[in-house]
Amino acid sequence: MAHDHDHGAATSSRTRLAIAFGITASILVAQAVGAILTGSLALLVDTAHMLTDAGGLLMALIAASLMLRPTTAKHTWGMRRAEVLAAALQALVLLAVGLYALAVSWQRLLDPPEIPAGSLLVFGIVGLVGNVLSLSVLIGDRNTNLNLRAAFLEVLNDALGSVAVIVSAIVLSTTGWRQIDTIAALVIAALIVPRAFLILRGAVRILMEAVPAWLDLGDLESHLLENPHVRGIHDLHVTKIGTGLPVLTAHVEVEPECFTDSHADEVLADLRACVRDHFEERIEHTTFQLETSDCSREQPLPHA
Length: 304
What we know:
The chain contains 9 helices and 3 strands, in the order H-H-H-H-H-H-H-E-E-H-E-H. The chain is mostly helical.
């Protein structure tokens, strides 16, 4: 049942991503034309951001499709890591766009070009409408996994960028202050870079198999030691394959009597229930190796 639920959720996410990608790709073409016609840096940066949105949504769509593939003898976790790789690539592209805006803005502040405010306003509104439509499609599944969270944040940032373009056009038409276009571009870059960094950091943590941020390994070990038959824990590792899929392995030292008094199954059941029910995320995939303290001393491992 859990597998069917996950498969259904993944299918729904893929459909939402496909719709959002279609909308974003259409608006991208319109904004690219607008950037060429107006010469606006803000619209150009927003168009580049829209390009990353379209590319990011396409990567997210491909990743969502790969995640539906079943496990195989070569890929025992299936393609669950595809969402992490897609999110990392999206974040890298977003960072590149933000840094580009910062690199070219200084010269534009000193020598701002002439920009038609009316055309800029029209294309800004077109971009905003498209982004709002995409957001309305993605919002229902935005917290499903890292891949969708990255896609949603990309579109949200681009929507805010479109707002900055619209404000720039209004200020330009009412005051004639040409530097506002470059300032709007800097605002868009400021929105892009921090969020891209957070997404990239989250993806790298998973790829480096770091302990999930929501889990304190010391608290987990103390909780496991509360079992009266457990004498020690070592080689305790908790990592994540992908969003919602934490994995735990541990060597558990128990009393020798556990293997003669039929307590081993009871200890295993208790340990699994402990990590499944007592933490922020349920840890369903666990591997506990029960052993006596004598066994641990005879076969030491190179890491604590």
